[in-house]
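Q: For a teaching handout, I want to show students what a protein-ligand complex looks like in token form. Below are the inputs, and the small molecule is iron/sulfur cluster. Please produce the holo structure.
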Amino acid sequence: MQYRENKQGEQLSVLGYGCMRFSRKGNGIDLEKAQKELQVAIEGGVNYFDTAYVYAGSEAALGAALENLNCREKVNIATKLPHYLIKSIEGCEKLFQEELKRLRTTYVDYYLMHMLDDVETWEKLCALGIKEWIAQKKESGAIRHIGFSYHGNTENFKALIDAYDWDFCQIQYNYMDEHSQAGREGLQYAASQKIPVVIMEPLRGGRLVGMLPEKAKELLKKEPHHRSPAEWGLKWLYDQPEVTVVLSGMNSEEMVRENMRVASETLPHSLSEEEKQVIEQIKEIIAETVKVGCTGCRYCMPCPFGVDIPETFRCYNAVYSESKRGAQHEYLQCTTFRKTPTDASLCRECGKCEEHCPQHIPIRAELKNARKALESPLFHLTKFAVKHLRLWG
Ligand code: SF4
Ligand code: SF4
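A: Here is the structure, written as tokens, with iron/sulfur cluster included.
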């Protein structure tokens, strides 16, 4: 494993384990499977594990697995405060204690203000007394390092970096987001201020792998290195010395091993100009086809009227990157062949989802576009049949 340093010179594995996408079984996380995958990662030298209060079941699964593996002291736990849920410092303390209990620990190594996107929000937290609370937690050892995760624009990111003495930060960054959100400019600014940067969505929620357009896949097949799309995406990040940790949401032992191999092999400044050109070509192909920049994070969910927003956008993008017929079929399957439908026509345009979307997608407008592309006469006929023939009870 390759390691890079935090502010205090402690070693962090360049590959971090994103615990948002553990495999699920029934209504919960498949703990046995997740624990095996975590064990492979820990044995391979991964020492940074990222979760959050709002990732359903994730903190509890990570806590249980680390306790079962007797590994708490060997690893760093990063988790997040959903500051948008708190109205007082007492509320903040209550959430933090709940997180410690779920994680079966007495301290958090890396604690983040979750989705802190502007200085105004930070100032509101300061007015509640968050700085004093952080100081007291650091003093007692309950929080070792404090940071924030970010999805806003470059300008606000730089302002936030300057607003407090952060120990680290976390941004969405991948080759398609080089110039959006914090972007390369933000990454380099944070690094210039000696603030370690953790990367989330390195493969845009898997879109730079599973939903790569056929033309891009063909280009990679002809490429002499024979690398997977994931390897290209991760190498692009490890190549940049300003990147400290890259989070990957791994949910198979094979994926953990493969990602550890790439993390061990790719040193800063190791990509050649020819390799960078390959990535530029992929970017151009993707930009031609993607309609909605949805990462599938599901922060917009649940929709009070039952729309499965990320699934709708996934199918909508597939109309252009794969095939229209296949995407329409998939949309029908995943939104209509079920007891409770989840298709885009259920949208009542309340706007609730848009308040939570880190990609700032105009969800209501895009759902209308998605309906036009995905809802064929066959869709409506099938939906009618499913509903009136009570096929699902
Ligand atoms: S705007 Fe539409 S999709 Fe979004 S939460 Fe409201 S009803 Fe659901
Ligand atoms: S629409 Fe936005 S919040 Fe919802 S899954 Fe996509 S990126 Fe995430």
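A: Two things your students might notice: The two ends are 52 Å apart (CA to CA). Residues 3-271 form a domain with the TIM Barrel fold (CATH 3.20.20.100).
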